[in-house]
Structures are given as structure tokens and as C-alpha cells.
């Protein structure tokens, strides 16, 4: 529908871009909070709670690195990978929601308020220019509107005389 009105389309696009830019920082802060919240959840305690399995024939005097098998470290790696994948999946769904909530929704409200205020201030000629309408067509519409007002006035006058 807006393709018929390129100037209006350009005004809407400019206002939408400006509104989205205004709320970008809030959206960015919310997304960063989500990422920080997820990244701070995995702590050293997570690894300490991992059950330790020393090798069966391990030397009790050996260091921790020597005492535990590769399977223990592989299990830690698998758990960390699983956790990271879970966090990534969570962020893949929650970040777009946060952006829509903090940026798009607020920009839409702002855009509507902007156009209510801006269109209300504009003169008839400015609105006509915004619609890229042919001046001859606008003049014809004005003539028809005046004629309609005359018809309504005549109808009201006939109605007032007819009921007396």
C-alpha cells in the first residue's frame, strides 16, 4: 500500500529508523545482562562437584593431574560443552525476545506518537506533498467535497421545510 506514496514511505522509514536507534542502547544493555547472567552461572564449584575417579592403579603419592584418568577430564569437557550449548540455545531464544521487548515494541509506540504529533502540525499542502498526489486530482477532490457540503446543506434545508 505504501508504494503508492513514496514520500510518506520515506518519512515512515526515517522515523522508524530513528525510533529504533533511540531504543538500541536499552536493548543492548538488556542483552548484555542476559549474557552476563548466563556466563556467571558456571563457577569453580561446578567443577569441584564433579565426582573424581582416580585410576585404579594410580600412585596415591602422584599429583592430581597424574592421579585422574583422561576419562575424568573428558567428562568435565563434555559437561562444559553441554552447558555451553544449553546457554547458547537459551540465548538464541531469549535475545530476540529481549530486542523485540526493549527496542521494537518501544520504537513502535514512539513511532505512533511521533506521527500523531507530526501529522497534526502539518498544513493541508504539506500533507498533499507527503502523499505525492497529483495537484489536479487534489483540486478535483476539493471541488467534490464542496459540492458534497452543498448537497448536505440543501438536504438539511429541504428536511427542515418538509417537516413543518
TrEMBL record:
Q: Which keywords does this chain's UniProt record carry?
A: Motor protein
Would you tell me the protein name for this molecule?
A: Dynamin GTPase effector
Q: Where is the GED domain?
A: 73-164
Q: Name one GO molecular function term.
A: GTP binding
Gene Ontology CC annotations of this record: cytoplasm; membrane; microtubule
Q: Which residue windows are transmembrane per the record? A: none
Check the record and name the InterPro entries matching this protein.
Dynamin (IPR022812), GED (IPR003130), GED_dom (IPR020850)
Q: Which organism is it from?
A: Dillenia turbinata
Q: Is the keyword Transcription regulation in the record? A: no
Q: Does the keyword Nucleotidyltransferase apply?
A: no
